[in-house]
Amino acid sequence: MKQQLENDNFIRALLRQPTEYTPVWLMRQAGRYLPEYRVTRQKAGDFMTLCQTPELACEVTLQPLQRYNLDAAILFSDILTIPHAMNVGLHFAEGEGPVIEKPVRDENAVLALPIPDPETELRYVMDAVRVIKHELHHRVPLIGFAGSPWTIACYMVEGGGSKLFWQIKQMMYQTPEILHALLDKLADAVTLYLNAQIAAGVDAIMIFDTWGGVLTTENYKQFSLAYMQKILTKLQRMNENKIIPRIIFTKGGANWLENMAATDCDALGVDWTIELSQARARVGDKVALQGNLDPAALMAAPARLKEEVANILASYGHGAGHVFNLGHGIDKTTSPEIVSILIDSVHELSKQYHANSKKSL
Ligand code: CP3
After folding, report:
1. 50 Cα nearest atom in ligand 1
2. Could you tell me the distance, in angstroms and rounded to a whole number, from the CA of residue 47 to the centre of ligand 1?
3. Pocket flag, ligand 1, residue 45 (CB < 6 Å)
4. Contact call for residues 93 and 23 (beta carbons, < 8 A)
């Protein structure tokens, strides 16, 4: 049996079970807005070394939990560890984001890609999970994650970040079979990777589909959602007698919530372009919802921020099934002090929406 978590509100909310308040964590909660992160990052030298050193990855995972009353920890790593292990020559250029030296643009390049073994080439990630689980002492759940095949493929085909996604969209329209072969390989790699994270001890998993929102509806279903579903059907549902809840997050995916909710996931991440009341009405009791504060709201004065928090909580309304989060990652210019105000106000202001939760069982 898995040892009980001291605070399992996050897991309960993902499974739409009653909690006394709305649990909260923040995408990119470990990162450059924290001065202590910048110190550890400096010590590591570069970003990939930080990811590849389990003790340092653990240190930065725990930093936001030392400051804030967060309801979950997220593994410190990156969605690009998989392409890194596929030998495409990934590095992070200072101030420019990720660069892939050998972009994948033809059939031979796809065929040459290995599917990394998570306990060898990606062992550093599993080791980080094991160290973090140990150091968390069952205080809060640990979230494991991966990128969606489509989002990872965007970086691999474009050779880095992109604004228009012209290379991968050309491939999608000119040689869709090559793109499908790449996505299929990535789905297999992500499945192995997430199942290994589950075996190593993560309590929930999240798939980041950061770039699904650039697609047409039909292309989203074929090139992004279908591969997330393929992964979800093959993920371990349980570990040590506990359900491992799954969250999928397509940024810009508000049009497709019904399609997303029809997959084998437990919760949807939603960005700020839709009101939670509408999102909830559309997904009904199929899935929980996670979101959806605009990260720019953290630039507001405290009173204005609290107003936004109150609006989001009121929009979701009464009852179980909401995890408070941002609609995308926290910006590096955010002040650590305002984050504290955010977390505390979610906890305080949400109690009223859970007052009768036990009765409604
Ligand atoms: O949420 C967390 O705190 C956990 C760690 C995490 C990171 N990246 C750390 C990171 C997670 C979950 C990610 C996911 C990720 N990585 C996504 C999906 C989510 C999203 O934000 O849309 C994507 C698209 C990436 C790819 C990636 N990694 C980019 C584009 C960059 C450069 C970003 C930038 O602002 O320079 C990274 C690097 C990265 N990943 C950093 C962190 C803390 C910054 C690296 C640094 O310290 O310089």
Report:
1. 47
2. 10
3. no
4. no
Residue showing tokens 């009405």: 281
> What does the block give as tokens for 353?
């929406």
SS3 (DSSP) at 326? strand
Is the beta carbon of 325 within 6 A of some atom in ligand 1? no
User: Is 311:292 a contact under the CB 8 Å cutoff?
Assistant: no
Residues 6+ apart with CB under 8 A from 7: 71, 139, 140, 141
Digits of tens for pLDDT over the chain (361 positions)?
A: 667 999 999 999 999 999 999 999 999 999 999 999 999 999 999 999 999 999 999 999 999 999 999 999 999 999 999 999 999 999 998 888 999 999 999 999 999 999 999 999 999 999 999 999 999 999 999 999 999 999 999 999 999 999 999 999 999 999 999 999 999 999 999 999 999 999 999 999 999 999 999 999 999 999 999 999 999 999 999 999 999 999 999 999 999 999 999 999 999 999 999 999 999 999 999 999 999 999 999 999 999 999 999 999 999 999 999 999 999 999 999 999 999 999 999 999 999 999 875 544 4
> How far is it, in rounded angstroms, from Cα 38 to Cα 319?
39
* pTM tops 0.90, yes or no: yes
- Tokens coding 330: 């926290």
Provide the pairing of β-strand 97-100 with 238-239.
unpaired
CA distance between the termini of the chain: 26
Backbone angles phi, psi at 74, to 5 degrees: -120, 135
* 28 classed as catalytic: yes
Is the Cβ–Cβ distance between 205 and 197 less than 8 Å?
Answer: yes
Q: Which CATH number fits the domain 30-67+72-236, given the four candidates 3.20.20.210, 3.30.420.10, 3.40.50.920, 2.40.50.100?
A: 3.20.20.210
SS3 category, 163: coil
Max Cα separation, the chain? 60
Q: Are 330 and 26 in contact (CB under 8 A)?
A: yes
